[in-house]
Backbone:
């Protein structure tokens, strides 16, 4: 009875129970983590918005390779159409060597192979998105391809350009003409905040509270037929019932054959 009256008095008064105090402490801690996450994003945004400063003497840093129209296509009547399409699907590669070759170890020796480069392809969700900057005439020059992704263990649909032969490579020096402005005070604030989060082991808690989870959950469109288990989600008594029915049918057939 004494405990009952004590709990009733605590609930009716402004005194907080032990459980309520723990909840308030946890809630306040989570609010602080949310504020830390917002502050970190604001500092990153300020750093990303810093302007570019032109260099007095530009310098070369490797080479860049991209696609251009082939000479005969550039002289054709459809040159403007393919040029506009190329601006949307062009890709750029950078390399320290003009040959754009990479070393690969084969039979205890290093062999130089050409680096592959393709035009931009679109996933199925990108193709159906209203943000896709392609006209209906441009979409007619793509076809659907289904490819196996070994890391994801599933098939993914890509939309690929039909006529890549209309474009050829062009290699140009990669010239650095601008550099990012550096704010020493801003970098100091970012380092201090990052050290505070890292030293107090707050990163995982921040990600869990702000984004809802820490680990990435692998996404699959559907389970592949060759990996499907036919006994998945089937109860044991149902399996035994089907087994007994098949056994009775086979016994009856054998009995009829003997007669």
Residues:
């Amino acid at each position: 009875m004494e405990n009952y009256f004590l709990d009733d008095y605590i609930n009716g008064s402004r005194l907080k129970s032990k459980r309520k105090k723990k909840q308030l402490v946890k809630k306040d801690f989570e609010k602080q983590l949310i504020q830390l996450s917002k502050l970190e994003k604001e500092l990153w945004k300020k750093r990303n918005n810093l302007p570019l400063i032109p260099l007095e003497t530009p310098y070369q840093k490797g080479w860049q390779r991209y696609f251009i129209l082939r000479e005969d296509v550039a002289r054709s009547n459809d040159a403007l159409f393919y040029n506009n399409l190329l601006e949307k699907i062009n890709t750029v590669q950078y390399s320290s060597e003009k040959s754009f070759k990479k070393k690969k170890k084969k039979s205890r020796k290093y062999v130089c192979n050409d680096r592959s480069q393709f035009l931009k392809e679109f996933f199925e969700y990108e193709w159906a998105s209203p943000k896709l900057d392609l006209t209906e005439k441009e979409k007619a020059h793509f076809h659907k391809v289904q490819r196996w992704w070994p890391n994801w263990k599933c098939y993914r649909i890509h939309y690929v350009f039909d006529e890549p032969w209309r474009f050829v490579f062009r290699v140009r020096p990669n010239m650095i003409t601008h550099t990012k402005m550096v704010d020493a005070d801003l970098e100091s604030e970012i380092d201090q905040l990052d050290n505070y989060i890292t030293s107090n082991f707050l990163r995982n808690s921040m990600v869990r509270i702000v984004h809802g989870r820490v680990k990435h959950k692998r996404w699959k469109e559907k389970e592949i037929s060759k990996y499907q288990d036919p006994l998945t989600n089937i109860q044991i008594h149902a399996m035994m019932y089907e087994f007994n029915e098949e056994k009775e049918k086979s016994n009856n057939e054998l009995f009829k054959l003997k007669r």
The first strand starts at residue 52 and ends at 69. The chain has two domains: 23-50+182-214, 52-180. The mean pLDDT is 86. Residues 23-50+182-214 form one domain.
